[in-house]
Structure formats: C-alpha cells, structure tokens
Amino acid sequence: MSALSRQILLITLLTAFAIGVQAQTPPDGTTLPEALTTPMLGGLEIEPTNVPGIAVVQDHQGFMWFAGHDGLVRYDGYSYTSYQHDPHDSTTLSFERLESLYIDHDGTLWVGTFGGGLNRYDEETDTFTRFMHDPGDPTSLSQDTVTVILEDRDGTLWVGTHGGLTGWTARRGPSPTTGTTPGTRLV
Fold this sequence. Notes:
Radius of gyration: 17 Å
Order of helices and strands: HHEEEEEEEEEEEEEE
Mean pLDDT: 74
CATH class of the largest domain: Mainly Beta
Number of helices: 2
CATH topology of the largest domain: Methylamine Dehydrogenase, Chain H
Number of strands: 14
Shape: globular
Strand order of the largest sheet: 3-4-5-6
Structural class: alpha+beta
Low-confidence stretches: 16-28, 30-39, 44-52, 173-181
C-alpha cells in the first residue's frame, strides 16, 4: 500500500471514528450537551473555569490538559491549574476560545485557538509563545483559527487552519511576530 493510500485510509478512519463518537449517548442517559457541560472529572468538580471540553491530551509528565471555549486547564491528579487569555500579557494564551491541543515528540504542548493563532507552552517558565498569521509574511500561519495540529515522522509540525495548511520545521525560535519565520505555508 502506497504512502498516499495509507494517509487516505487514516483520514477516512479518523473521520468515521469522529462521527461515531459524536453520535454516542453517554452511558448514564444524560443528553450530550448536558454531559459536556457538567463540571466533573473523575468525581472531582472542575472549578477554575467552565471548560466544555474541545480537546484533551496527556503530556510526558502525566498531566492532563483540557481545552475549551473558556481557556485551558491542567490537571495533575490532585488539583487544577487554569490558563487564560490576558490582553495585557503577551506570555498568556493569545485567545480564550481554544480549538486544538497537541504534544509533539519533544513533549511540547501546542494550543490552537479560534482566531488567536497557535500557542507554544514553555513548561520551564509556565508561559506561552504566540504564532499568528501575518499577511506580509508568506511563511506565517495561513489564518488564525487553528483546528488541527499534527506532527509527521520527520518532525514537521502540520497546522491546519480555516485558511489552509502550514508545515513548520524551524519552530523552536521566537515568535514569527518578532521577525522569525517559522515554516512554509502550503495553502
């Protein structure tokens, strides 16, 4: 089977799985919207934010990360830490409405937003670096609504937006808004 055939098969299976998951009814009989908005996790109440649950990942330290329309929550098994957008602090999330999460092969957390571009979490400083669309830079994000983030075996980070696909290979430097170009926009 060719590489293209495998990719098409993978996309088809993931789409079918996503449709099937959306069609599931929770086992306790509650309606899906009620189940998504109940602020509980493993019997513990989630208090920092009202996160409905758009994306969930687990990092290399075992922390669970939950993204929603009201920010990001990290759960360490005992307590929650909330991360919010602060328009006066460029080291916070670039936007409050989150769409996607991804942990790359280096263990770096990437956060896609609905209109605020892409954010890279730095666990040493507990801050975020923002990557946004720049109309004057053809290597910046194709648009600022990031719906999917994936990484291939060569280490290229693929960022899908409402405006196209961007592949980033040199992504460890400063934000592109400071003059560094992160990658190649593929449309």
